[in-house]
Write a structure and sequence with these properties.
InterPro entries: BTB/POZ_dom, SKP1/BTB/POZ_sf
Number of strands: 12
Oligomer: single chain
Shape: elongated
Pfam families: BTB
Strand order of the largest sheet: 4-5-8-11
Largest sheet: 4 strands, antiparallel
Distance between the termini: 61 Å
Number of domains: 3
Protein name: BTB domain-containing protein
Domain BTB: 23-132
Length: 330
C-alpha cells in the first residue's frame, strides 16, 4: 500500500541555494536571444560574477525574452560558439572534444579573454593548433599577441627562427612591428645563422678558418655553454681576453675539423678542441676546458658543439621578450 505524499503546505525547503542555482538568465547579442543558467556564467567568469553580485534593478533585466540582458562588444556567432562550450552535449563530454571550427574557437577565445573565463581560455588553447602544420608561425605570433598566450608566442618565434617557413624582414615588420622584428633578427644569432665568419685571407697552411664567437661553443654532452665568463688566452705571451659580447668573434675553428651534427632536438656542428684557436696568437684556446653544468672535460673525443637545440632557442626567446611575457599566460 503506497503512502500518500504530504500536503504541499507541510513541505520544507532543505537548501534554498539549490533552487536559486538553476535560475534562468536570458541574454541578447545583436539580433539573437540566448537562454542559460546564471551559475554557468558566474562559475566561469569573474566579470559575470561581479555583474550578478550587483543589487537587482527594477527592470527584471535578464528574466525573460522580453527583458534580456543585452551584451555589447561581441557578435552573436561568437556567443553561439561559446554557448556550445558552456552547454556541451553528451558526446562532447564523453570524447572531451567539441566540433568547432578554427574560426569558432577563436570567437570563443575572444569572449573568454574579454570576460576573464580562465578555464575556457585554457580549453581553447588546448584545442587549437596542436600540430605545426595547423598554422603558419607568423599568424600564430599575431594571435599570441592578440590573446596573450605564452605557449603560442614562444612556439611562433621559435618556428620563425628555425622552422621551414621564414618570413622576410619586410613582412615581419609590417605584421609585428619594428621593435619585435629587430629582436627576432638578433635572436638569429642563437641559431645557425651567423655562426661562422670567414674573413679574407683566413686560409693558412692549407687550412681554411672560420671565425666564431666564444659564447657559441657548447658542451658536446649536455649542450650547455662552455664559457660563461670572458676567456683569457692560455698562450704564453698572448694573454688576450676573449669577450662574450655579441660582436666579438675572436676565436677560430679549422674548417677541416668541422662535422655536421643532427639529432631529434639539435642541429649544428661538432668540432675538436684542438681545432679551436685564438686569432691573436694562433694557439689552442680550449685546452683543459670543462663544462660548468655537467663537468665533462672537452677533448678531441668529447667534441665541442656549435649550434642550437629547441630549449636553447626557447630560453633565448623568453629572455628577449621577458617584459611582454609578464602579461601572458597559458
Amino acid at each position: 500500500m503506497s503512502v500518500p505524499p504530504p500536503p504541499r503546505e507541510d513541505l520544507t525547503v532543505v537548501n534554498e541555494d539549490d533552487e536559486s542555482k538553476w535560475e534562468l538568465v536570458v541574454f541578447q547579442v545583436e539580433t539573437r536571444v540566448f537562454h542559460s543558467f546564471r551559475h554557468v556564467f558566474t562559475n566561469t567568469s569573474e566579470v559575470f560574477r561581479d555583474m550578478f553580485l550587483l543589487p537587482p534593478g527594477q527592470s527584471d533585466e535578464g528574466t525573460s525574452r522580453e527583458k534580456p540582458i543585452v551584451l555589447h562588444g561581441c557578435v552573436e556567432n561568437d556567443f553561439a560558439s561559446l554557448m556550445k562550450v558552456l552547454h556541451p552535449e553528451q558526446i562532447h563530454v564523453v570524447d572531451s572534444k567539441f566540433d568547432l571550427s578554427e574560426h569558432e574557437w577563436l570567437g570563443v577565445l575572444q569572449l573568454a579573454t574579454m570576460w576573464e573565463m580562465k578555464e575556457i581560455r585554457e580549453l581553447c588553447v588546448q584545442s587549437m593548433f596542436q600540430k605545426q602544420v595547423d598554422i603558419a608561425p607568423l599568424k600564430l605570433a599575431i594571435l599570441a599577441q592578440q590573446f596573450r598566450v605564452r605557449s603560442w608566442f614562444l612556439r611562433a618565434v621559435r618556428d620563425i627562427l628555425i622552422g621551414t617557413i621564414r618570413p622576410s624582414t619586410e613582412t615581419l615588420i609590417s605584421s609585428l612591428g619594428v621593435s619585435m622584428t629587430c629582436r627576432i633578427m638578433d635572436l638569429q644569432m642563437c641559431t645557425l645563422a651567423g655562426v661562422f665568419g670567414v674573413p679574407p685571407g683566413s686560409s693558412k697552411a692549407g687550412s681554411p678558418r672560420a671565425l666564431v664567437r666564444l659564447d657559441r661553443l657548447r658542451c658536446g654532452v649536455c649542450r650547455a655553454a662552455l664559457f660563461t665568463q670572458p676567456r683569457t688566452c692560455p698562450g704564453v705571451g698572448c694573454q688576450r681576453v676573449h669577450s662574450l659580447e655579441a660582436d666579438a668573434c675572436t676565436a677560430y675553428v679549422l674548417a677541416s675539423a668541422v662535422l655536421m651534427l643532427q639529432s631529434d632536438d639539435a642541429l649544428g656542428f661538432s668540432v675538436s678542441t684542438s681545432s679551436v684557436g685564438c686569432i691573436f696568437c694562433d694557439r689552442q684556446l680550449c685546452a683543459m676546458v670543462s663544462c660548468p653544468e655537467c663537468y665533462s672535460l672537452a677533448s678531441d673525443t668529447n667534441r665541442i658543439f656549435i649550434g642550437y637545440t629547441y630549449s636553447i632557442v626557447e630560453r633565448a626567446v623568453e629572455d628577449a621578450f621577458k617584459e611582454e611575457l609578464k602579461d601572458y599566460d597559458l
